[in-house]
Structure prediction request, 378 residues.
Amino acid sequence: MSKRDYYKVLDVPRTATEAQIKQAYRRLAMKYHPDRNPNDGEAEERFKEAKEACEVLTDAQKRAVYDQHGHAGVEAAGRGRGGFGAGDAFSDIFGDVFGDIFGARRGGRSQVFRGADLRCELELDLHEAVFGTTAEIEVPKLTECETCHGSGAAKGSTPSTCESCGGAGQVRISQGFFQLQQTCPRCRGTGTVIRNPCDTCLGQGRVRRTRKLSVKVPAGVDTEDRVRLAGEGEAGRNGGPPGDLYVEIHVREHAIFERDGEHLSCEVPVSFATAALGGSVAVPTLDGDVVLKIPAETQSGRVFRLRDKGVKPVRGGARGDLFCRVVVETPVHLSGEQKELIRTLEESLKTHPGRHAPREKGFLEGVKRFFSSDHGKA
Prediction:
Protein backbone atom coordinates (compact mmCIF):
# COMPACT_ATOMS: atom_id res chain seq x y z
CA MET A 1 0.00 0.00 0.00
CA SER A 2 1.44 3.38 -0.99
CA LYS A 3 2.13 5.90 1.71
CA ARG A 4 0.03 9.03 1.98
CA ASP A 5 1.55 12.47 1.81
CA TYR A 6 2.90 13.40 5.26
CA TYR A 7 1.32 16.85 5.16
CA LYS A 8 -2.08 15.35 4.36
CA VAL A 9 -1.67 12.78 7.13
CA LEU A 10 -1.24 15.57 9.69
CA ASP A 11 -3.65 17.90 7.86
CA VAL A 12 -1.21 20.81 7.82
CA PRO A 13 -0.01 23.05 4.95
CA ARG A 14 3.44 22.55 3.45
CA THR A 15 4.45 25.86 5.02
CA ALA A 16 3.51 24.67 8.56
CA THR A 17 5.94 25.49 11.34
CA GLU A 18 7.45 22.84 13.59
CA ALA A 19 5.12 23.89 16.41
CA GLN A 20 2.06 23.50 14.16
CA ILE A 21 3.24 20.05 13.09
CA LYS A 22 3.75 18.91 16.68
CA GLN A 23 0.35 20.25 17.67
CA ALA A 24 -1.33 18.36 14.81
CA TYR A 25 0.52 15.19 15.79
CA ARG A 26 -0.52 15.45 19.43
CA ARG A 27 -4.16 15.75 18.39
CA LEU A 28 -3.98 12.65 16.17
CA ALA A 29 -1.91 10.67 18.67
CA MET A 30 -4.44 11.27 21.42
CA LYS A 31 -7.24 10.18 19.09
CA TYR A 32 -5.67 7.05 17.62
CA HIS A 33 -3.33 5.83 20.38
CA PRO A 34 -3.61 2.01 20.78
CA ASP A 35 -4.33 2.34 24.50
CA ARG A 36 -7.45 4.31 23.65
CA ASN A 37 -8.43 2.00 20.79
CA PRO A 38 -7.71 -1.59 21.86
CA ASN A 39 -8.05 -4.23 19.13
CA ASP A 40 -8.59 -1.53 16.48
CA GLY A 41 -6.17 -2.22 13.64
CA GLU A 42 -7.19 0.83 11.62
CA ALA A 43 -6.60 3.21 14.56
CA GLU A 44 -3.19 1.62 15.17
CA GLU A 45 -2.17 2.18 11.55
CA ARG A 46 -3.33 5.81 11.69
CA PHE A 47 -1.28 6.28 14.87
CA LYS A 48 1.86 4.83 13.28
CA GLU A 49 1.28 6.90 10.13
CA ALA A 50 0.98 10.14 12.10
CA LYS A 51 4.06 9.32 14.19
CA GLU A 52 6.15 8.68 11.11
CA ALA A 53 4.94 11.87 9.44
CA CYS A 54 5.73 13.95 12.50
CA GLU A 55 9.17 12.40 12.88
CA VAL A 56 10.15 13.39 9.37
CA LEU A 57 8.55 16.83 9.22
CA THR A 58 9.95 18.01 12.58
CA ASP A 59 13.53 17.25 11.51
CA ALA A 60 14.89 19.98 9.22
CA GLN A 61 17.18 17.64 7.26
CA LYS A 62 14.61 14.90 6.83
CA ARG A 63 11.96 17.42 5.83
CA ALA A 64 14.22 18.94 3.20
CA VAL A 65 14.86 15.49 1.73
CA TYR A 66 11.15 14.66 1.79
CA ASP A 67 10.10 17.98 0.19
CA GLN A 68 12.55 17.37 -2.66
CA HIS A 69 12.38 13.59 -3.17
CA GLY A 70 9.28 12.39 -1.33
CA HIS A 71 9.04 9.05 0.52
CA ALA A 72 11.69 7.44 -1.66
CA GLY A 73 14.26 10.03 -0.68
CA VAL A 74 13.61 9.55 3.06
CA GLU A 75 13.81 5.78 2.76
CA ALA A 76 17.05 5.98 0.80
CA ALA A 77 18.57 8.34 3.34
CA GLY A 78 17.53 6.00 6.13
CA ARG A 79 19.17 2.99 4.48
CA GLY A 80 22.34 4.87 3.66
CA ARG A 81 22.81 6.64 7.00
CA GLY A 82 21.93 3.93 9.51
CA GLY A 83 18.23 4.76 9.88
CA PHE A 84 16.48 6.37 12.82
CA GLY A 85 14.31 5.22 15.73
CA ALA A 86 10.60 5.33 15.09
CA GLY A 87 9.86 6.18 18.73
CA ASP A 88 12.02 9.32 18.94
CA ALA A 89 9.34 11.72 17.77
CA PHE A 90 6.81 10.36 20.23
CA SER A 91 9.16 10.58 23.22
CA ASP A 92 10.51 14.04 22.31
CA ILE A 93 7.13 15.63 21.69
CA PHE A 94 5.23 14.09 24.59
CA GLY A 95 8.22 14.61 26.84
CA ASP A 96 7.75 18.35 26.30
CA VAL A 97 4.09 18.08 27.23
CA PHE A 98 4.18 15.63 30.15
CA GLY A 99 7.72 16.07 31.45
CA ASP A 100 6.74 18.02 34.55
CA ILE A 101 4.09 15.47 35.44
CA PHE A 102 6.67 12.71 35.74
CA GLY A 103 9.06 14.91 37.70
CA ALA A 104 11.61 16.06 35.12
CA ARG A 105 11.81 19.33 33.19
CA ARG A 106 13.55 18.90 29.88
CA GLY A 107 15.31 20.92 27.29
CA GLY A 108 18.24 23.27 27.78
CA ARG A 109 18.43 23.03 31.54
CA SER A 110 19.15 20.44 34.19
CA GLN A 111 16.37 18.10 35.23
CA VAL A 112 14.65 18.31 38.59
CA PHE A 113 12.90 15.35 40.15
CA ARG A 114 9.87 15.31 42.42
CA GLY A 115 10.28 13.28 45.60
CA ALA A 116 8.58 9.92 45.94
CA ASP A 117 5.18 9.62 47.59
CA LEU A 118 5.08 7.58 50.80
CA ARG A 119 2.41 5.45 52.46
CA CYS A 120 1.94 4.44 56.08
CA GLU A 121 -0.83 2.80 58.10
CA LEU A 122 -2.62 4.26 61.10
CA GLU A 123 -4.73 2.09 63.40
CA LEU A 124 -7.69 3.71 65.12
CA ASP A 125 -10.36 2.66 67.58
CA LEU A 126 -13.94 2.84 66.33
CA HIS A 127 -14.65 5.87 68.53
CA GLU A 128 -11.64 7.73 67.08
CA ALA A 129 -12.70 6.89 63.51
CA VAL A 130 -16.30 7.96 64.08
CA PHE A 131 -15.62 11.26 65.86
CA GLY A 132 -12.19 12.13 64.45
CA THR A 133 -8.91 12.52 66.25
CA THR A 134 -5.37 13.86 66.02
CA ALA A 135 -2.69 11.18 65.99
CA GLU A 136 1.09 11.28 66.14
CA ILE A 137 3.03 9.11 63.70
CA GLU A 138 6.70 8.50 62.96
CA VAL A 139 7.75 8.29 59.31
CA PRO A 140 11.23 7.32 58.09
CA LYS A 141 11.97 9.18 54.86
CA LEU A 142 14.60 10.92 52.78
CA THR A 143 14.80 14.59 53.76
CA GLU A 144 16.89 17.46 52.48
CA CYS A 145 20.38 17.47 53.97
CA GLU A 146 20.60 20.35 56.44
CA THR A 147 24.37 20.64 56.01
CA CYS A 148 24.44 21.30 52.27
CA HIS A 149 20.75 22.32 51.90
CA GLY A 150 20.24 19.67 49.25
CA SER A 151 23.11 20.64 46.94
CA GLY A 152 25.23 17.61 47.81
CA ALA A 153 28.38 19.77 47.92
CA ALA A 154 30.54 20.33 50.99
CA LYS A 155 30.48 23.66 52.84
CA GLY A 156 32.29 26.37 50.93
CA SER A 157 31.82 24.64 47.56
CA THR A 158 29.10 24.33 44.97
CA PRO A 159 28.26 21.74 42.32
CA SER A 160 30.08 22.26 39.02
CA THR A 161 28.46 22.38 35.62
CA CYS A 162 28.71 19.01 33.92
CA GLU A 163 31.29 19.21 31.15
CA SER A 164 29.67 16.43 29.14
CA CYS A 165 26.27 18.07 28.68
CA GLY A 166 27.10 21.70 29.50
CA GLY A 167 24.48 21.72 32.26
CA ALA A 168 21.61 20.63 30.01
CA GLY A 169 21.26 17.21 31.60
CA GLN A 170 21.05 15.63 28.15
CA VAL A 171 23.52 14.84 25.40
CA ARG A 172 23.15 14.31 21.67
CA ILE A 173 24.61 11.22 20.09
CA SER A 174 25.27 11.09 16.35
CA GLN A 175 23.88 8.05 14.60
CA GLY A 176 24.85 8.32 10.99
CA PHE A 177 22.95 11.10 9.31
CA PHE A 178 20.83 11.83 12.39
CA GLN A 179 21.27 12.75 16.06
CA LEU A 180 19.61 11.22 19.12
CA GLN A 181 19.12 12.87 22.50
CA GLN A 182 19.46 10.99 25.80
CA THR A 183 20.08 11.60 29.50
CA CYS A 184 23.67 12.52 30.22
CA PRO A 185 25.38 9.40 31.63
CA ARG A 186 27.87 11.43 33.69
CA CYS A 187 25.52 13.68 35.69
CA ARG A 188 22.43 11.45 35.26
CA GLY A 189 20.33 14.34 34.06
CA THR A 190 21.09 16.80 36.89
CA GLY A 191 23.34 19.00 34.76
CA THR A 192 25.93 19.26 37.55
CA VAL A 193 28.68 17.15 39.09
CA ILE A 194 29.89 17.26 42.69
CA ARG A 195 33.67 17.35 42.99
CA ASN A 196 33.74 17.93 46.78
CA PRO A 197 30.82 15.98 48.29
CA CYS A 198 29.12 16.84 51.57
CA ASP A 199 30.30 14.70 54.49
CA THR A 200 26.79 14.35 55.89
CA CYS A 201 24.92 13.09 52.84
CA LEU A 202 27.97 11.92 50.80
CA GLY A 203 26.93 14.06 47.87
CA GLN A 204 23.35 12.76 47.65
CA GLY A 205 21.71 15.96 48.91
CA ARG A 206 19.31 13.86 51.01
CA VAL A 207 19.56 11.86 54.23
CA ARG A 208 17.20 9.33 55.76
CA ARG A 209 15.61 10.49 58.99
CA THR A 210 12.55 9.62 61.05
CA ARG A 211 10.13 12.49 61.46
CA LYS A 212 7.26 12.83 63.90
CA LEU A 213 4.12 14.15 62.26
CA SER A 214 0.70 15.11 63.54
CA VAL A 215 -2.19 13.69 61.52
CA LYS A 216 -5.61 15.29 61.82
CA VAL A 217 -8.09 12.51 61.08
CA PRO A 218 -11.56 13.77 60.06
CA ALA A 219 -14.68 12.30 61.64
CA GLY A 220 -16.33 9.39 59.85
CA VAL A 221 -13.30 7.72 58.27
CA ASP A 222 -13.33 3.97 57.69
CA THR A 223 -10.83 1.24 56.91
CA GLU A 224 -8.97 1.87 53.59
CA ASP A 225 -9.70 5.60 53.66
CA ARG A 226 -6.58 7.72 53.15
CA VAL A 227 -5.49 11.04 54.60
CA ARG A 228 -3.08 12.99 52.37
CA LEU A 229 -0.34 15.11 53.89
CA ALA A 230 0.93 17.30 51.08
CA GLY A 231 4.69 17.76 50.89
CA GLU A 232 5.43 15.21 53.63
CA GLY A 233 6.83 12.57 51.28
CA GLU A 234 10.47 12.19 50.34
CA ALA A 235 12.50 15.26 49.39
CA GLY A 236 12.95 15.98 45.69
CA ARG A 237 16.28 15.90 43.90
CA ASN A 238 18.10 18.77 42.25
CA GLY A 239 15.66 21.31 43.68
CA GLY A 240 12.53 19.32 42.87
CA PRO A 241 9.41 19.48 45.10
CA PRO A 242 8.82 16.86 47.80
CA GLY A 243 6.31 14.06 47.41
CA ASP A 244 3.19 13.51 49.51
CA LEU A 245 2.47 11.17 52.41
CA TYR A 246 -0.68 9.04 52.30
CA VAL A 247 -1.87 7.77 55.68
CA GLU A 248 -4.06 4.68 55.21
CA ILE A 249 -6.65 4.16 57.93
CA HIS A 250 -7.30 0.80 59.56
CA VAL A 251 -10.11 0.65 62.14
CA ARG A 252 -9.71 -2.02 64.82
CA GLU A 253 -12.52 -4.48 65.54
CA HIS A 254 -14.89 -3.35 68.27
CA ALA A 255 -16.03 -5.58 71.11
CA ILE A 256 -19.71 -4.69 70.61
CA PHE A 257 -20.34 -2.92 67.31
CA GLU A 258 -19.88 -4.00 63.70
CA ARG A 259 -19.71 -1.28 61.06
CA ASP A 260 -21.12 -1.33 57.55
CA GLY A 261 -20.52 2.06 55.97
CA GLU A 262 -22.51 4.61 57.93
CA HIS A 263 -24.52 1.97 59.81
CA LEU A 264 -23.67 0.07 63.00
CA SER A 265 -25.06 -3.22 64.31
CA CYS A 266 -24.86 -5.10 67.59
CA GLU A 267 -26.41 -8.02 69.44
CA VAL A 268 -28.59 -7.32 72.48
CA PRO A 269 -28.97 -10.22 74.94
CA VAL A 270 -32.49 -10.44 76.39
CA SER A 271 -33.72 -12.75 79.15
CA PHE A 272 -36.37 -15.36 78.46
CA ALA A 273 -38.83 -13.58 80.71
CA THR A 274 -38.30 -10.17 79.08
CA ALA A 275 -38.69 -11.63 75.61
CA ALA A 276 -41.91 -13.42 76.60
CA LEU A 277 -43.53 -10.76 78.75
CA GLY A 278 -41.96 -7.59 77.36
CA GLY A 279 -39.81 -5.04 79.11
CA SER A 280 -36.88 -2.77 78.43
CA VAL A 281 -33.10 -3.12 78.24
CA ALA A 282 -30.22 -0.66 78.18
CA VAL A 283 -28.42 -0.56 74.83
CA PRO A 284 -24.99 1.06 74.43
CA THR A 285 -24.50 3.55 71.60
CA LEU A 286 -21.63 5.81 70.59
CA ASP A 287 -23.45 8.67 72.32
CA GLY A 288 -24.19 6.76 75.54
CA ASP A 289 -26.77 4.22 76.71
CA VAL A 290 -30.37 4.35 75.48
CA VAL A 291 -33.42 2.37 76.61
CA LEU A 292 -34.78 -0.13 74.08
CA LYS A 293 -38.36 -1.27 74.64
CA ILE A 294 -38.89 -4.99 74.00
CA PRO A 295 -42.48 -5.94 73.10
CA ALA A 296 -44.00 -9.07 74.58
CA GLU A 297 -43.49 -12.31 72.63
CA THR A 298 -40.32 -11.03 70.93
CA GLN A 299 -38.48 -13.83 69.13
CA SER A 300 -34.72 -14.28 69.07
CA GLY A 301 -33.20 -12.70 65.96
CA ARG A 302 -35.65 -9.79 65.72
CA VAL A 303 -33.91 -6.55 64.70
CA PHE A 304 -34.73 -3.12 66.12
CA ARG A 305 -33.58 0.06 64.42
CA LEU A 306 -32.33 3.07 66.33
CA ARG A 307 -32.24 5.99 63.92
CA ASP A 308 -29.33 8.44 63.82
CA LYS A 309 -27.24 6.32 66.20
CA GLY A 310 -24.74 5.29 63.54
CA VAL A 311 -21.89 7.14 61.83
CA LYS A 312 -21.89 10.42 59.91
CA PRO A 313 -19.94 9.71 56.68
CA VAL A 314 -16.66 11.56 56.19
CA ARG A 315 -17.75 12.70 52.72
CA GLY A 316 -21.04 14.12 53.95
CA GLY A 317 -24.58 12.86 54.12
CA ALA A 318 -27.03 11.80 56.78
CA ARG A 319 -25.89 9.95 59.88
CA GLY A 320 -26.48 6.22 59.79
CA ASP A 321 -28.54 4.01 62.12
CA LEU A 322 -27.85 1.38 64.78
CA PHE A 323 -29.44 -2.04 64.22
CA CYS A 324 -29.97 -4.10 67.38
CA ARG A 325 -30.46 -7.84 66.95
CA VAL A 326 -32.20 -9.47 69.89
CA VAL A 327 -30.65 -12.69 71.22
CA VAL A 328 -32.80 -14.51 73.77
CA GLU A 329 -30.52 -16.03 76.37
CA THR A 330 -31.07 -19.55 77.66
CA PRO A 331 -30.75 -19.66 81.47
CA VAL A 332 -27.66 -21.47 82.74
CA HIS A 333 -26.51 -22.87 86.11
CA LEU A 334 -30.10 -23.62 87.17
CA SER A 335 -30.95 -24.98 90.58
CA GLY A 336 -33.16 -28.02 91.02
CA GLU A 337 -36.13 -25.87 91.93
CA GLN A 338 -35.66 -23.66 88.86
CA LYS A 339 -35.44 -26.66 86.57
CA GLU A 340 -38.66 -28.04 88.02
CA LEU A 341 -40.42 -24.73 87.43
CA ILE A 342 -39.34 -24.74 83.77
CA ARG A 343 -40.59 -28.32 83.33
CA THR A 344 -43.91 -27.32 84.83
CA LEU A 345 -44.12 -24.38 82.42
CA GLU A 346 -43.19 -26.62 79.49
CA GLU A 347 -45.96 -29.08 80.33
CA SER A 348 -48.42 -26.23 80.58
CA LEU A 349 -47.42 -24.88 77.16
CA LYS A 350 -47.80 -28.29 75.50
CA THR A 351 -51.55 -28.20 76.09
CA HIS A 352 -51.87 -25.71 73.20
CA PRO A 353 -48.62 -26.14 71.12
CA GLY A 354 -49.84 -24.28 68.09
CA ARG A 355 -50.85 -21.32 70.15
CA HIS A 356 -47.74 -20.93 72.24
CA ALA A 357 -45.10 -22.06 69.73
CA PRO A 358 -46.21 -21.08 66.21
CA ARG A 359 -42.75 -21.53 64.74
CA GLU A 360 -42.38 -25.01 66.14
CA LYS A 361 -45.79 -26.00 64.79
CA GLY A 362 -44.95 -24.66 61.34
CA PHE A 363 -41.64 -26.47 61.33
CA LEU A 364 -43.17 -29.81 62.31
CA GLU A 365 -45.89 -29.49 59.67
CA GLY A 366 -43.24 -28.75 57.05
CA VAL A 367 -41.26 -31.85 58.03
CA LYS A 368 -44.41 -33.95 57.83
CA ARG A 369 -45.22 -32.67 54.33
CA PHE A 370 -41.68 -33.35 53.19
CA PHE A 371 -41.67 -37.00 54.23
CA SER A 372 -45.18 -37.60 52.88
CA SER A 373 -44.23 -36.25 49.44
CA ASP A 374 -42.14 -37.82 46.68
CA HIS A 375 -39.02 -36.39 48.31
CA GLY A 376 -39.50 -38.63 51.30
CA LYS A 377 -40.06 -41.70 49.07
CA ALA A 378 -36.88 -41.21 47.03
In short: The longest strand covers residues 133-144. The CA atoms of residues 26 and 94 lie 8 Å apart. The domain at 106-141+204-252 is CATH 2.60.260.20 (HSP40/DNAj peptide-binding domain).
